[in-house]
Task: inverse folding
């Protein structure tokens, strides 16, 4: 794990190449690079990031650790600049390595969704009209709370955060057993049979791959299956309640 | 105790960094915010939306009820 907070410009391509070179056993590398943006109808001259470097290192390290615990990537690197920057320059780069692509995507997604709200960086834009601080965006809080990707939502959303068409028989597992059987009594009481709930959704979606569900009684593997099949669910109109 | 202000909270250059010696009864972040507002006009303006201010003690994020015991650096900043 490599966490850097620096005022110096970095070369995104060179950093990516060096990162990939460290992971001979990995089958997937994901790189996200955030850039200083300047819109043609609202151009900026300079973006300055104020930062508390010691806190930033602690927060980014905690984020990378959380991502590593959840998705077990082979390696994670976060590079974040602060100080004055020009349009087109790289602000942040998140890189993940993993044996397979999905954990690499998921780890990078989680880090970016939380980095926007948890890391102590504050933007000040300088334009021809003067300079101003950029306030935190509600969309960033939403991304953190619910995940900006289907994968993140599936991981972070509460069980009741998804809905299905009421006509679908969502309350039975492929084997016909009540999925609430795996819950403790208090949890089961909160989830009446027949009512669409997150873990019930998981069971239904996993029917698309019944061979993968054989013999799986716990809800944990089913959650993984839902993440993998979320795009198919979205095409069917099964959307998050967020 | 070193007090750091960042971004919108640091409205004047001299306010950005500084050492302060709060009164003994100042034992939490909330107390400190009140004390700074009472003792520093610039801080009073910068900290007027008190509930939105975030804080860190010794480079660790904390809530407003966090104790200042052992704090050598307190940082105050916007969300």
Result:
């Amino acid at each position: 794990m490599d966490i850097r907070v620096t005022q110096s410009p970095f070369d995104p391509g060179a950093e990516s190449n060096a990162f990939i070179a460290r992971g001979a056993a990995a089958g997937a590398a994901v790189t996200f690079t955030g850039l200083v943006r300047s819109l043609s109808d609202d151009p900026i001259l300079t973006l300055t990031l104020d930062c508390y470097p010691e806190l930033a290192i602690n927060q980014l390290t905690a984020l990378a650790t959380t991502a590593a615990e959840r998705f077990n990537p082979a390696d994670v690197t976060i590079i974040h600049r602060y100080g004055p920057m020009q349009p087109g320059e790289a602000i942040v780069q998140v890189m993940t390595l993993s044996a397979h692509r999905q954990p690499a995507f998921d780890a990078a997604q989680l880090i970016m969704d939380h980095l926007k709200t948890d890391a102590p960086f504050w933007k000040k834009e300088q334009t021809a009209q003067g300079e101003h601080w950029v306030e935190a965006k509600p969309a960033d809080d939403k991304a953190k709370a619910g995940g900006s990707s289907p994968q993140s939502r599936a991981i972070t959303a509460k069980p009741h955060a998804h809905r299905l068409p009421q006509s679908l028989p969502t309350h039975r597992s492929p084997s016909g057993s009540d999925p609430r059987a795996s819950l403790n009594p208090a949890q089961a009481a909160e989830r009446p049979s027949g009512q669409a709930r997150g873990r019930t959704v998981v069971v239904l979606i996993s029917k698309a791959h019944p061979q993968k569900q054989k013999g799986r009684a716990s809800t944990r593997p089913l959650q993984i299956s839902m993440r993998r099949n979320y795009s198919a669910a979205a095409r069917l109109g099964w959307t998050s309640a967020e | 105790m070193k007090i750091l202000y960042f971004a919108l909270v640091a409205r004047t250059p001299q306010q950005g960094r500084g050492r302060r010696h709060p009164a003994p009864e100042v034992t939490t972040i909330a107390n400190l915010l009140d004390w700074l507002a009472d003792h520093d006009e610039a801080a009073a303006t910068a900290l007027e939306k008190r509930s939105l201010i975030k804080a860190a003690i010794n480079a660790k994020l904390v809530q407003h009820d966090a104790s200042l015991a052992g704090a050598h650096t307190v940082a105050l900043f916007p969300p």
